[in-house]
Amino acid sequence: MFVKKQFKALIERNRWFKSVPNALTLCNSVCGFGAILYTLQAYASPRGVTDVFAISAWIILFAMVFDALDGFAARIFNAASMKGIQMDSLADMVTFGVAPATLVAIMAHHLQPMSNTQYLLMCGLAAVYLGGAALRLATYNVHAMLEKKSSDKFTGLPTPGAAAAICSIIIFCNTGLYPLTYLSLALPIYAAVLGLLMVSSFPYVHVGKWLFSMKRNKRRLVLFLIFFLAVFMFKTAAVVVLINLYILSGPAIALWNKLKSVSETENDCKSQIA
Known about the structure:
The model has no long low-confidence stretch (mean pLDDT 83). The termini are far apart. The longest helix is centred in the C-terminal third of the chain and has 38 residues, at 236-273. 81% of the residues lie in helices and 2% in strands. It is mainly alpha-helical. It is globular. It has a single domain, classed as Four Helix Bundle (Hemerythrin (Met), subunit A) (Up-down Bundle), CATH 1.20.120. It has helices spanning 2-13, 20-40, 49-76, 82-111, 116-146, 159-177, 180-198, 207-212, 218-234, 236-273; strands at 153-155, 203-205. α2 packs parallel to α4 and α5 runs parallel beside α7.
C-alpha cells in the first residue's frame, strides 16, 4: 500500500508521465506509416519482393505491441482521456486499416499479371476491408463515449485481429511452404471477408482481458499453456492457426448462442404445454 501511494505521488509530481500513453499511440501510427512506405519499396527494392511484403507484415504486427502498451500505460499512470481514445482509433486506422489494405492491393498488383478490370476488383476488395476498419473504429469510439464500463467482449472483429490474420498468413507463406504468388489472388477476398466481420454483430473475446483473467481461471490458464506450447513447437504455423481460429470464433459463438436460445425457447414452450 505504501509503495502504491509513493508511485501515485511520483506520477502527480512528474506530469510528463501522463504523456506516455499518447507517445506509445504515436509509435503505433508511425509503424503503420512505415509499413505503408516499405510496402511501396516492392517496386524498387533490390531485396526479393516477397521479403518486402513479409517485412511490412512484421512491422504491422510489431505495432500491436504499442497498441497494447498504450492502454496499459493509461491505466498505470491514470491518464485515460477522450483525446487518448480518439488518438488510439486514428492510429489503429492507419496501422490496422490503411497499411494492411495497401499491402493486399500492392501484392495483388505486383505478383500476378492481371487486366485493369481485375486489378480494380482486387482494389475494391481491399477497399471493403478498409471501409470495415473505419466503421469498426468509429463504432468503438461511440461505445467508449457512451459506456461507463468496458465489456470483456467486442461486437465485431477488432481491427488488430483482422490485421494479424492478413499479416500472419503473408509471413507464413513467405517461409516457402506455400507460394505467395497464388496467395495474392485469394488474400483480397479474405480481406473483404475480414472487413465484413469487423462491422458484424458477432461477439469476439477481448484477448487482453482474457489474458489478465488467467490468474483467477484455471481453465484459461491451461488453455494458454496449450497455446504457448503449440507456438513453441510449430512457430509461425501455430500462430496462423490460432489467429484464424479466433477469426472463426465470432461466427461460432453467435451460432452457438442462437442454437442455445432456440433450444431454451422450445423447452419453455414444452413446459407451458405440459
